[in-house]
Design goal:
Strand 3, helix 4 (109-124) and strand 4 form a beta-alpha-beta unit. Helix 1 packs across helix 2 (32-42). The protein is of the alpha/beta class. It has eleven helices and ten strands. Helices cover 40% and strands 18% of the residues. The strands form three sheets. Strands 4-3-5-6 form a four-stranded parallel beta sheet, sandwiched between helices.
Length: 262
């Protein structure tokens, strides 16, 4: 039974409450906000919760630890994108990168975690980190436009609000000939130049095979140690690079799991 909360935590809570009434065998929330809403609804029950699409479950308050079984009704799959390696790619494509702009929804815990890690990495490399926050997809285009002329590159993390209006980010970046980088491989197909991040399909396979299926077959989720995402993909979009007035080195293109454009 697949239900979409449309980025609304209230909707997520209502969906989880409906699943409780329906007495489903397992809840599998995707993203940090949906997971937090589900855990709140199922607290004190024996309803199994096996989450996915979460960046940092400890920092967001989902779990106390990822190093051992939870001892509760909750376990799941998690992982941050490789921030350091991502910056290596950005700088290989635009070596003179001095000011990097980003937009994100500060109410999304996963976005806060990625933004914090990315900002620290940028500062270590002497790159100014210019951030603009939004509260809804309706603000994405204006927020992106506000960065034009202030930065020499854009990067997006893994933010549900931004993803819901990503075409607006792409149009503004391409029209301004600003290189647009990402930390989510699904953004590359939509117009970002490059991303190194978890393979979402394989993450789904691991989520099911290592956690959800064992629970459905009778395992107590509290006895299963959370699983970290292990497979990362490199994807490039050569048409997006052309729009951003940069060239992707052949060494990066040759390693890409997927390539878009010519």
């Amino acid at each position: 039974d697949y239900q979409n909360a449309q980025g609304d935590v209230g909707n997520a809570r209502n969906i989880a409450e409906k699943f409780m009434v329906d007495k489903v065998d397992l809840m599998a929330p995707c993203t940090t906000p949906n997971t937090l809403a589900t855990i709140k609804v199922t607290k004190g029950s024996k309803m199994p919760v096996v989450f996915g699409c979460v960046t940092n479950p400890v920092q967001s308050g989902i779990l106390a630890s990822v190093d051992k079984p939870t001892g509760t009704n909750v376990t799941g799959l998690y992982g941050l994108p490789p921030i350091k390696q991502s910056f290596d790619l950005f700088l290989a494509i635009k070596p003179n990168l001095k000011r990097l702009g980003t937009i994100y929804n500060a109410s999304e815990t996963n976005s806060l975690n990625i933004n914090k890690a990315a900002k620290a990495e940028a500062q270590r490399r002497g790159i100014a980190w210019v951030e603009v926050t939004v509260t809804s997809s309706a603000e994405v285009k204006t927020a992106t436009e506000s960065l034009v002329g202030r930065v020499d590159g854009l990067v997006t993390g893994q933010d549900n609000t931004i993803a819901s209006a990503y075409e607006a980010v792409v149009k503004v970046a391409h029209d301004a000939h600003l290189p647009l980088f990402a930390m989510d491989v699904s953004a590359v197909r939509r117009g970002a130049i490059v991303a190194l991040a978890q393979n979402q399909y394989q993450a789904g396979v691991d989520w099911a095979r290592e956690l959800a299926v064992p629970v459905l077959l009778g395992k107590d989720p509290g006895t299963l140690t959370p699983v970290r995402m292990r497979q990362y993909d490199l994807q490039v979009n050569l048409d997006a690079a052309r729009a951003g007035k940069v060239t992707v080195p052949a060494s990066i293109v040759s390693k890409a799991a997927k390539k878009y454009g010519h």
